[in-house]
Design goal:
Elements lengths: L5 H12 L4 H28 L5 H13 L2 H14 L6 H26 L9 H27 L7 H11 L7 H6 L4 H25 L1
Length: 212
């Protein structure tokens, strides 16, 4: 429920309706998701796979798995490259570009393959909770958070950025949601949720944009 499809849905929407803050909103969203939300999600997922371990053993297991997780490693490498302003050789840079351009197709392939075996019975209580949480509770939580920031003296001065944060939060889940769920045998739940929230987001986002 906590990660939005900010790159492929949120940013294009903002680029059309709030172009002055679209890039800023995307950058801020990516930073928070990649450095805070995704690591927290992975920690929670790892904890759920071994609920009976004591704190020390569980901590070792989580550190071990996160230290070998490609997403975490790539984020650490990206931060180091940015901090130290490392200029990558052209052949490495080109290779990264090819991988980044193909990642969407790979994600869609996995999602499509999983959706192909989904039946109407796959829509259960857990799916509905995820869909409602993502499309309605997260944007509501962001709105409440913005008001709390204002009350304690740290308001978002730009009203367009205020709107952009809510719109970003109201988009469907990030495109790698189903891919991440594969490792934890939750791909059916993730794919069904993704399908349903993508369809419903046409109506929920349209209503939100009208209100804003």
């Amino acid at each position: 429920m906590a990660c939005s499809n900010s790159g492929f849905i949120g940013y294009p929407l903002l680029f059309i309706i709030l172009p002055s803050v679209a890039s800023t909103a995307l950058s801020l969203n990516m930073i928070v998701e990649n450095l805070i939300i995704i690591p927290l999600i992975l920690i929670m997922a790892e904890k759920a796979t071994a609920p009976h371990l004591n704190l020390l053993s569980l901590s070792k297991l989580i550190i071990n798995r996160l230290a070998t997780n490609p997403i975490i490693l790539s984020m650490v490498m990206a931060i180091l490259v940015t901090i130290f302003k490392v200029q990558l050789p052209l052949f490495i840079n080109n290779g990264i570009n090819v991988i980044s351009q193909s990642s969407v197709a790979v994600s869609l392939f996995v999602i499509g393959g999983t959706i192909a075996k989904i039946s109407i019975t796959s829509v259960n209580k857990n799916v509905i909770i995820v869909v409602i949480g993502k499309l309605f509770l997260l944007p509501a939580a962001v709105l409440v958070g913005l008001y709390i920031m204002e009350m304690i003296g740290y308001p978002v001065d730009n009203p367009d950025l205020h709107k952009a944060a809510i719109i970003m939060a109201a988009t469907p889940a990030m495109s790698i949601y189903t891919v991440l769920a594969l490792k934890y045998d939750q791909e059916d739940l993730a794919a069904t949720s993704m399908l349903l929230m993508t369809i419903l987001s046409f109506f929920s986002l349209s209503a939100l944009l009208y209100l804003i």
